[in-house]
Amino acid sequence: MSEIKKWDILDSQYIIKRPWLTARKDRVKLPNGQINDEFYVLEYPDWVNVIAVTEDGDFVMIEQYRHGLGRVQTEICAGVVESGERHLDAAKRELLEESGYGDGDWRLLTILSGNPSTTNNLTYCYVAEGVRKISSQHLDRTEDVAVRLLSRDKVIELLRKDDMKQSLMVAPLLRYLFMPET
Amino acid sequence: MSEIKKWDILDSQYIIKRPWLTARKDRVKLPNGQINDEFYVLEYPDWVNVIAVTEDGDFVMIEQYRHGLGRVQTEICAGVVESGERHLDAAKRELLEESGYGDGDWRLLTILSGNPSTTNNLTYCYVAEGVRKISSQHLDRTEDVAVRLLSRDKVIELLRKDDMKQSLMVAPLLRYLFMPET
């Protein structure tokens, strides 16, 4: 059985380094000796998202416009881990800022990648059960986010109808809703 | 209930346009009147992937090095839809090229996005049941891919242990394995 090995980086240079887009071009050598002169990697900080469920069993979702795809989407709360911040703290902060919900019992459900080929970061997906509204929203000036409480059945309908597109959210929701724990 | 609306694009310019990385910077206006001078969108062709299961119930997986994350990953076959190609044809082509497997009964399972905020493309996720080996691999010179046949239990173990990172593959696998059809 052939063994798959890492590539060697022969050269690496940044094309753009901005807070919301950092891209580098690597010149790489494969184990078979082949050279790829142009392999792009997008560098991001780690991301977090959270499946937040109230004491009544409703899912705390947010609706917002997603400019890449050009569609309004109903999603779970998510965001970026700030420098020096713990992943769990980032998830709690994002849920509070975007929805005003907090408290509850938290656990890490899964750690995923949007694209292991082209991106260098991971997304930590949490579950928070028994959350409740403890403050108002605190949005950045370029955020336009509406909170929506959805029943479990409505969330399942959203998934079944393929209305939620973000795979970094669909995967943990499917795991939480349907995968047996052991 | 507040209505979430699209943003207006005030200006748009390409930063880089290469076969494997096309990025544009949009100047956008939100419905609340706020301007964001710097919103980056990554443009890609649509992608496809396929959960391929043999007549014996084994899953046709591939192992390859993923340079963005810097890890060897066991994944399902996947690739890019070529210009003018139908999505289903692209999925059949990728499965055949990467694994040598083909035939079987095909259906579209779900259509997802790696990131609706920053990317403009969709990934069409297929299921192919009853596939069989009909040719050898046909890889590009910069592909280093090993075929692995995994039992259903092994695939579930891979998911449960969080060893497969690619959310565009984890989501359809969880849907296929665990979500009731209705």
Describe it.
Chain A has 182 residues and is an alpha+beta fold. In chain A, strands 4, 5, 6, 7, 8, 9 and 10 form a 7-stranded mixed β-sheet that branches. Chain A has a 3-stranded antiparallel β-sheet with strand order 1-2-3, with no helix packed on it. Chain A is globular, with a radius of gyration of 19 Å. The first copy, chain A, has helices at residues 87-99, 152-160, 167-178, and strands at 8-18, 21-29, 35-43, 47-54, 59-66, 71-80, 101-102, 105-112, 123-133, 145-150. Chains A and B meet through strand 1, strand 2, strand 3, strand 5 and strand 6 of A and strand 1, strand 2, strand 3, strand 5 and strand 6 of B.
In the CATH hierarchy, what is the architecture of the largest domain in chain A at level 2?
Answer: Alpha-Beta Complex
Strand residues, percent of chain A = over 45%
Largest interface: A-B, 68 and 69 residues
Low-confidence stretches of chain A: none
Per DSSP E runs of 2 or more residues, the count of β-strands of chain A stands at 10
Mind telling me the CATH class of the largest domain in chain A?
Alpha Beta
Number of helical elements of chain A:
3
* Shape type of chain A: globular
Q: What is the CATH superfamily label of the largest domain in chain A?
A: Nucleoside Triphosphate Pyrophosphohydrolase
CATH topology of the largest domain in chain A: Nucleoside Triphosphate Pyrophosphohydrolase
Mean pLDDT of chain A: 95
How many structural units, i.e. domains of chain A?
Answer: 2
How would a textbook summarize the main sheet of chain A? 7 strands, mixed
Rg value of chain A: 19 Å
**Oligomeric organization of the protein chains:** homodimer
